[in-house]
Amino acid sequence: MAQQQRTGHIRGLRKVVTVTDEVFLELGRPVATPVRRVAAAAVIRNPWAGRGFVADLGSAVADVAPGLGRLLADRLIEELGGEDRIESFGKAAVVGLDGEIEHGAALIHTPYFGNVLRELAEGTSIIVFSDDRLAAGEPLTVPVWHKTAAATRSHYQTIPVRVADAPRPDEIVVVAAAASGPRPNARIGDRRSDPEIRLADLETTR
Questions:
Q1: What's the 3-state SS for 36-100?
Q2: What is the value of pTM for the model shown?
Q3: Burial state string for 30-40 with b = 16 or more CB within 10 A and e = fewer than 16
Q4: In angstroms, rounded to a whole number, what is the distance separating the alpha carbons of residues 199 and 103?
């Protein structure tokens, strides 16, 4: 019943798809800390479908985006076992062929979605993203990075998402993604351990 209360007010919501994977071996080697990656995708009717060019997208964003942010954040938290299990996050939108890229951007690139997802995930970083206009069933790659330290290189990874019957031409798929840890066996260092590299120094070694 609680889940129905959270989703019932999202206008045009057709379905929610959650994709989870957990990596235990990488190149035959056990992963030091098994990492669970989750993407939650909400399929909604495009609020601007059939209306031609709409100059002001704001009212529909304020109406739809906060509910989507809460719904998808709740799915991530549930799949990963709590807010504290989310180490990295990302977001995405896929617009159907009759929509504008700006329609997807309007739903994920404003505080109505981003701030809700960030607060519920207990993050502080800007949320990395991807977006596209695709036919139903086409895959999208969603990037994620650390929720409080975006420059933490070990947490740069991607999560593939595909909804077989979406987006239909008049739909948008809105995605929130998260991971419980870094890439499997991450070991390329970080800014704190990087040597100082300048283009001039590299040129002299040729």
A1: EEEEEEEEEECCCCCCCCCCCCHHHHHHHHHHHHHHHHHHHHHHHCCHHHCCEEEEEEEECCCCC
A2: 0.90
A3: ebeeebbbbbb
A4: 40
Could you read off the pLDDT tens digit of each residue along the chain, which spans 206 residues?
344 445 557 889 999 999 999 999 999 999 988 899 999 999 999 999 989 999 999 999 999 999 999 999 999 999 999 999 999 999 999 999 999 999 999 999 999 999 999 999 999 999 999 999 999 999 999 999 999 999 999 999 999 999 999 999 999 999 999 999 999 998 888 877 788 888 888 876 55
Q: Which amino acid is it at 37?
A: R
Q: Which of 117, 11, 108 is nearest to 64 (CA)?
A: 11
Q: Which CATH superfamily groups domain 2-204?
A: BB2672 (3.30.1330.110)
The amino acid sitting at 39 is A
